[in-house]
């Protein structure tokens, strides 16, 4: 009798131990699927800078952009609201097309790369984006930051400080500081005379470029994110204005930014939010956007500066630069204008 009770007690103890072990292991496994980074605790003071980069489906290809101090604060505030779920397979996440990346440079020299999309990437791992529907429009706004400045540019025009003579070569320096994220700086001579550009890069030898009247020239292998000083020489009288524009990127990039292509499509407004509208494409024309595709369009960055009073159910026409970012949901490049259509589909 005693032996039987003893065996039952031992069996119950073993079974209880197994159940406790399984429960603990399950709990550990579940916790391990969450990202190590705690978005809610990130403080903007911990971050030196945030770089935005990615690819587009249009002619301009890759893009990059460094968030301003104010944009950095706003982006960290947005990150504080992100809720992540379980880890998902990387191939599954990448198939959703999310190709916009944010690189966070922490003061402790740590660098974290984020990839927000239908799934949220943290370095090499991807997770369920629990509040995607709630926050995605805000991320779309940040993803579009580079659109207002596909190419950083500076007006480095100067007033000639002194007339140059045979033994007196005078270079007049602009007070603007220029930075290159591409490793290339392009100089545009908007004068009817030749100029020589002098580029001073910290801790490096001065670089020069001779540019004919109305011409464009590029300097390559520029150290990235260094504050460079631009000077210009021209055989002109004192106090003559010397016009010079500097662009971050190659000559091809400059030409494409000056020749703005414009395409358009018609859509139905599904939802109106503070900084964006959700639309459904009704007529593609030559825009490359599939009919019935649903996505958000930012409304606080429309180049025309004019936006009609929109409501759900309105029929509209959206003019943009033809760039479609390869993400899910898709995103547009520069939005030039949004027009309200009448019941016949006319402006």
Automatic annotation (TrEMBL):
Leader sequence residues: 1-27
Keywords annotated in UniProt: Signal
Keyword Signal assigned: yes
Key word Signal present: yes
Listed name of the protein: Uncharacterized protein
Organism: [Ruminococcus] torques
């Amino acid at each position: 009798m005693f032996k039987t009770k003893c065996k039952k007690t031992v069996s119950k103890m073993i079974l209880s131990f197994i159940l406790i072990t399984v429960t603990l292991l399950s709990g550990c496994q579940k916790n391990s699927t969450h990202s190590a980074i705690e978005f809610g605790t990130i403080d903007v003071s911990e971050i030196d800078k945030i770089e935005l980069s990615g690819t587009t489906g249009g002619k301009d290809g890759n893009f990059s952009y460094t968030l301003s101090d104010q944009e950095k604060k706003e982006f960290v505030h947005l990150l504080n609201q992100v809720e992540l779920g379980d880890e998902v397979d990387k191939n599954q996440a990448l198939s959703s097309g999310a190709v916009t990346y944010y690189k966070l440079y922490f003061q402790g020299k740590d660098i974290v790369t984020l990839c927000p999309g239908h799934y949220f990437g943290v370095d090499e791992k991807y997770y369920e984006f629990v509040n995607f529907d709630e926050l995605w429009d805000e991320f779309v706004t940040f993803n579009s930051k580079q659109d207002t400045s596909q190419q950083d540019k500076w007006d480095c025009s100067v007033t000639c400080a002194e007339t140059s003579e045979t033994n007196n070569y005078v270079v007049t320096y602009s007070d603007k500081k220029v930075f290159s994220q591409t490793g290339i700086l392009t100089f545009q001579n908007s004068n009817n005379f030749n100029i020589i550009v002098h580029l001073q890069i910290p801790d490096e030898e001065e670089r020069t470029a001779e540019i004919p009247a109305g011409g464009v020239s590029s300097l390559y292998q520029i150290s990235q994110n260094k504050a460079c000083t631009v000077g210009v020489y021209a055989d002109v009288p004192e106090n003559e204005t010397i016009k010079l524009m500097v662009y971050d990127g190659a000559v091809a990039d400059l030409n494409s930014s000056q020749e703005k292509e414009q395409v358009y499509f018609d859509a139905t407004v599904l939802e109106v939010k503070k900084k964006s509208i959700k639309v459904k494409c009704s007529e593609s024309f030559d825009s490359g956007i599939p009919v019935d595709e649903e996505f958000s369009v930012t409304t606080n960055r429309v180049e025309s500066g004019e936006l009609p009073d929109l409501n759900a159910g309105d029929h509209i026409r959206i003019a943009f630069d033809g760039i479609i970012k390869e993400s899910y949901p898709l995103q547009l490049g520069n939005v030039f204008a949004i027009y309200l259509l009448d019941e016949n589909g006319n402006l």
